[in-house]
Amino acid sequence: MFIAAAVSFYLLLMLHCPAPSSATEKSPCDTCTKLVDRFHKGLEDTSKKNFGGGNTAWEEKTLSKYETSEIRLVEIIENLCDSSDFECNVMVEEHEEQIEKWWFKMRKKYPDLRKWFCIETIEVCCPSGTYGPDCVACLGGAERPCHGNGFCSGDGTRLGDGSCRCKAEYTGPFCLECADGYFSTGRNDTHSFCSVNQKPQFVPRITQYISLNRK
Ligand SMILES: *[C@@H]1O[C@H](CO)[C@@H](O)[C@H](O)[C@H]1NC(C)=O
Q: What intrachain disulfides are recorded (predicted)?
């Protein structure tokens, strides 16, 4: 097909370029998310370009055809990847048929391209708050991974192990404990707040000093 030819030609060109360095390696989910962003930008650009308003019946018919046409899809796909973005070009080449399928058949039923394409079809992303090959909930639950106090490894991707990397104030596997130098200002089963401003009752060593000062 038209698109296949364009993209294949493009990949041929790319084969002559050196392999990308691993320093710039990003996850397939990042690649997919960026690609979908560019798709939306392409939709926007092509709609500006082609809808002037105040059209005759003939124009309206032609334009509404354009709106869902292969021509428009090709224009959008041409601009999906920067020429230097190897991962993006490979992804488009590999999954061009699915993108076409979405465009012609799935778009109405599944308007969210990222969800349909990146999460459910090519399975490189997960819903946020989940990770890994099967999109399992992060530690602390998918609603508030790491209890809102850290970042879940692989969050939103098919990678990672769901473990928490806590913000500076927090520690422990669930980011519910206070790190050294931080003190709890409130906690229950699902929420924990730590801050540099200590509450005397949590800091036995300093309690004496503070109570002496206050007397
Ligand atoms: C825990 O604390 C948070 C924040 O103060 C509150 O919104 C939540 O309802 C509390 N949960 C329980 C089970 O008490």
A: 166-175
Query: Is any ligand 1 atom within 6 A of the Cβ of residue 26?
Result: no
**Separation between Cα atoms, residue 210 and residue 183, nearest integer Å:** 15
Answer whether 12's CB lies under 8 Å from 105's CB: no
Region label for 166, one of left (φ > 0), alpha (ψ between -120 and 50) or beta (otherwise):
beta
Taking the model in full, what pTM does it have? 0.74
Per-residue model confidence (pLDDT) at position 47:
87
Q: Do 38 and 119 belong together in one domain?
A: yes
Tokens of 95: 């999954």
Domain end position, chosen among 124, 151, 169: 124
- The CA distance from 84 to 17, in Å, is 9
Domain coverage including residue 85: 2-18+26-124
* Nearest in space to 185 (alpha carbons), one of 175, 170, 195: 195
pLDDT in tens, 141-152: 999 999 999 999
Instruction: Choose which residue among 188, 189, 192, 193 to substitute to test ligand 1 binding: the one with the highest number of ligand atoms within 8 A of its C-beta.
Output: 188
Has residue 68 got a pLDDT over 60? Answer: yes
